[in-house]
Design goal:
Blueprint: H1 15-39, H2 56-80, H3 85-104, H4 113-119, H5 123-138, H6 146-159
Helix pairs in contact: 2-3, 2-6, 3-5, 3-6, 5-6
Length: 161
C-alpha cells in the first residue's frame, strides 16, 4: 500500500465554535457573579443621625402595646358582629399564644393545654386557656363570652414575665 508522502495537519474547528465556547464561559461567569451578588447578606449602612435600637424594656413595652391593640381589635370585631363568640375566642387564643412565643420563645402556639400545664407556665395563661378559650373552641354548645376572654388575654399580656 502506498501512502502519500505528505502529512496533513489535524482538522481545525471553525472560528464560530470558539466564539460559542467563549460566550458560554462568559455567561457562566456572569450567572455565578449574579448568584453571589444577590444572595450575600447586605452590609449595614450607618447613616448620620440614625435612630438607635430601643432598649430591651422599650421593645417589651412595644410588644405589649401591639398585642393589647390586637386584643382590642378582636373584641371590637366581636362587639360589631364581625366575629362569632367561638371565632373571637379562637383568635384571642392565637394572639395570646403568639405573644408568649414572641416574648419568651416558648412555642405556645403548638402546645396543648396539658403541655403548658406540664411545663409549669405562668398561671394566667393556663387559666385563660382552661376557662375561656378551650371550652369555647372545643366544647359543643354556647361559647364563653369573648369579652371576659379578652380581659383574661390582657391579664396574660400584662403579667407575663
Amino acid at each position: 500500500m502506498s501512502a502519500p508522502d505528505e502529512l496533513y495537519p489535524p482538522a481545525q474547528y471553525g472560528w464560530g465554535w470558539m466564539l460559542l465556547a467563549l460566550g458560554i464561559i462568559a455567561f457562566l461567569i456572569l450567572a455565578g457573579w449574579l448568584l453571589i451578588h444577590f444572595t450575600k447578606p447586605r452590609r449595614s449602612i450607618v447613616v448620620q443621625g440614625q435612630v438607635e435600637m430601643p432598649m430591651t424594656a422599650d421593645v417589651l413595652t412595644m410588644l405589649r402595646q401591639e398585642y393589647n391593640e390586637r386584643i382590642g381589635q378582636i373584641e371590637g370585631d366581636y362587639r360589631a358582629g364581625a366575629l362569632t363568640a367561638r371565632q373571637a375566642n379562637l383568635e384571642l387564643s392565637r394572639v395570646v399564644r403568639t405573644f408568649v412565643n414572641e416574648y419568651s420563645g416558648l412555642e405556645a402556639p403548638v402546645l396543648a393545654l396539658d403541655d403548658l400545664v406540664r411545663l409549669g407556665v405562668q398561671p394566667a395563661l393556663v387559666d385563660a386557656m382552661h376557662r375561656y378559650y378551650y371550652p369555647s373552641i372545643f366544647r359543643k354548645g354556647p361559647s364563653v363570652d369573648p369579652v371576659a376572654g379578652a380581659e383574661a388575654a390582657r391579664k396574660v399580656v400584662a403579667s407575663w414575665h
